[in-house]
Amino acid sequence: MFGQNWPAHNGVVVGSNPAISVFSIEETHAVQGGIAPETLSFFPATRRVGPPHDVSGQITKINILDIRAFPHNGGGRTSYRKEGAMPVTLHSACIERLRESLKKALSMIIVDKNQLIRRHSTVGLFESEKILPSSGKSKNIKGDLEEYIGEYPVFDFVYETISKELSENQTYDSEVLNLKLTSIECYKDVEALANRLLEQFITLPWSYKFSLNISSELISPNDFLEDTVDFGGGVSLSKVTDEFKERFPLESHIEARNNNLSKAYGPLLLKDTLNWNSKGVVLQVERLGFVGHYGKTSPVISAEETIKSFFGLGLALFIFKHSKAYYPIPPKRHLYVHRLEDDRWCIDSKNDLDDDFSEAIMQITFDNLEGRIKDNKKIDWLIYHFNQIRSCFASAERAEPILLACRWLFDSYAGRNELLSYVQATVALEILLGDKASSDLMGLSELLRNRCAYLIGTTNTERQSILDDFKGIYEIRCKIVHRGKSHLSFGEKAMFNKLRKMCARVIQKEVDLLLKESENI
C-alpha cells in the first residue's frame, strides 16, 4: 500500500538490482490514488509489500510501501494520476537532485533516546526544499505540495515520516544520546532510505478522514434517519453502527501505535479509552495530503478549521447553544485520523485538540429554543438546518466568507480571554460586511454598521436600533485594539452578547442568500 509506515511486519524489499523490476497490477489504477502506467525508472529498485518473491535473488525482510513500476513512455517527465487531486509531477532530473540532496541530509541526522530526532541536525533538509520547481511550467508543484503538507513540504514529510517510524519501531532508551540515524540497522543504507522516502513522496496526496465523537446532548443517533448525513466538501455526520466500527477501526496491527493512541493525559494521567461513542454520532472531515507524527500539516489544520466552521454555523443558526461550565480537569478532545490504504480505512494517529477548542466543544449542546422545539419535531428541525449547512459545505468556494466568519464566531466562544473573544466576534462581522475599497472612502465602522443594519433590519426602527448598537459595539472594539483596554464592564459584556447575536443574524442572512443562489443555478 502506498505510504505504508516502514518497517512493516510482513513485507519485503525485493533486491537492489539497478535494473527496474516490473510487477503486474490492475491496469486502471494501483491502489489508493493510483499511479498511471508510466515511468518510475529513475528509481534504482522497486519495492513492494506482500509475500516474499525473490525477483533479483536478494531478499531483505523489511516493510515499506507498495509501489509498482512500468516501462518508460519516452516522455522526459513522469506523471501520477490521483483521484480528486491534481497530481504532483516531478521531472526525472529534479528527482535525481532531490535524491542526492536527501542522501547528504539524512546522513547528518542525530537521534536521541532511540526515538527523538534533534531538530538542528535536520537543517540539511531545507536545502532540498530549494530543488522543488517554483517557476516555469512546474511552478504549481511547490504550491500543490504546500497544500498537501505545509510551507516546507520536503522537510515536514521526511522529518515526520522518520519520527513516526522511530516511535513505532524503536524502543525508547533514555541512555542513548547523540546517535547517528544511519547507525540504526534499518537506516544504514542511506541511498535506499532516500529512494524509499522519495517513492513515498511522489505518491502524495493520501486520503485521510478526521473523526470527532459528538455527545448525544448535541446530536443523538435518533435525530436523523440515514446512517450518514453528507454535507458535501468532505464533511459528514455518521451514526456509530457495527458497519461504521468495522469500516473505521480504532486499533492497528502495530502495538506501539495502539499504545500512542491510548496514551495517558491530564494531571491524573488518565488512560484514554479507544472507542466510538455509540450513544452519540461522529463528525468526519475528509482531506487529502500528508499527516505527520508531531507537527500540524495542512490537512490537520484544514480539518480543525472545518470543524470550527461546522460548530460556528450551528451556533449561528441556533441549532446549538453554548453554556459555560467548570471542569476540575481540563477536558481533552481529539480527532481520530484514518488513512485510506488499499481501499480500507486504517487508523493512522490521534490528533489532540488544544484546551480551548476541546472545552468549547464540551460546552456546546443542542438548542431547543427554550423548549419550543419538542422531541417529536427535532428531526424536522434538523433536516431543515442540515440543508442550510449542506448549502455552505457543498458550495465551499462561494460560501468561503460564511465558513470563515463561522470559524471566527466559534473562536469567540473558545478560551477565557473575553477581550480577545470580543475582537474575534467583530472580525466575523468584518469578514462578511467589510470591503476595503468602500471602507477607505467612508470608514470601516460606518460601512459595517450601515451594511449590517440594512441586511438584518426589517423596519426603520429596527435599523436605527442596530445602527446605534453597532456604534457602541465598535467603540468598545477600538478601545481594546487601539488603547489596550484591560477588561469589559457589565454593560460592555451585555454589548458583547448583542454582538454575537448580530453575527448570528448576519450569517443567517448570508446563508439564506446562498440557498436562493443555489436554487437559481
List strands and helices in order, with pairings.
Blueprint: E1 12-14, E2 59-61, H1 92-106, E3 110-112, E4 116-117, H2 125-129, H3 139-148, H4 153-169, E5 179-180, H5 190-201, E6 206-214, E7 228-232, E8 235-239, H6 242-247, H7 255-261, E9 264-265, E10 270-271, E11 281-289, H8 298-316, E12 320-322, E13 334-341, E14 344-352, H9 355-362, E15 364-366, H10 378-393, H11 400-413, H12 418-433, H13 436-442, H14 444-456, H15 460-483, H16 490-520
Antiparallel strand pairs: 1-2, 3-4, 3-5, 6-11, 6-13, 7-8, 8-11, 9-10, 12-15, 13-14
Helix pairs in contact: 1-5, 8-11, 10-16, 11-12, 11-16, 12-15, 12-16, 13-14, 14-15, 15-16
Please characterize this protein's 3D structure.
The chain folds into three domains: 12-201, no CATH class; 227-408, no CATH class; 417-520, no CATH class. The longest helix has 31 residues, at 490-520. 42% of the residues lie in helices and 13% in strands. With 521 residues, the protein is of the alpha+beta class. Strand 13 (334-341) and strand 14 form a beta hairpin. The protein has helices at 92-106, 125-129, 139-148, 153-169, 190-201, 242-247, 255-261, 298-316, 355-362, 378-393, 400-413, 418-433, 436-442, 444-456, 460-483, 490-520, and strands at 12-14, 59-61, 110-112, 116-117, 179-180, 206-214, 228-232, 235-239, 264-265, 270-271, 281-289, 320-322, 334-341, 344-352, 364-366. Strands 7-8-11-6-13-14 form a six-stranded antiparallel β-sheet. It has a three-stranded antiparallel β-sheet with strand order 4-3-5, with helices on one face. A two-stranded antiparallel ribbon has the order 1-2.
